[in-house]
Amino acid sequence: MKANRLARRRLAAGVGAIAIVAMGTLSACAGEKKEAPTTTTTTTTTTTTVSPSEKGLSPTGGNKFTPSVTAPGPQTALPGNVNTG
Q1: What's the N-to-C CA distance of the chain in angstroms?
Q2: Segment 48-77 mean pLDDT
Q3: What ranges do the domains of the chain cover?
């Protein structure tokens, strides 16, 4: 039983050591990156005039975006009756 526990610890230590060596190897292989060649592009922009929409808001005209339909009220049960359906 004790030998089994010792074998597990050795295996875990070996796997940890291999992981550390692998991380060191991968970080050493990264090295320095070479700079990519830079290119510049020129773009031209054009401006267009914006026309007002049909549903424009005016400060004195009220809110024209409110719906005209209202939802019905909630259903209520009679006092003493519980309706959770």
Answers
A1: 61
A2: 68
A3: 1-29
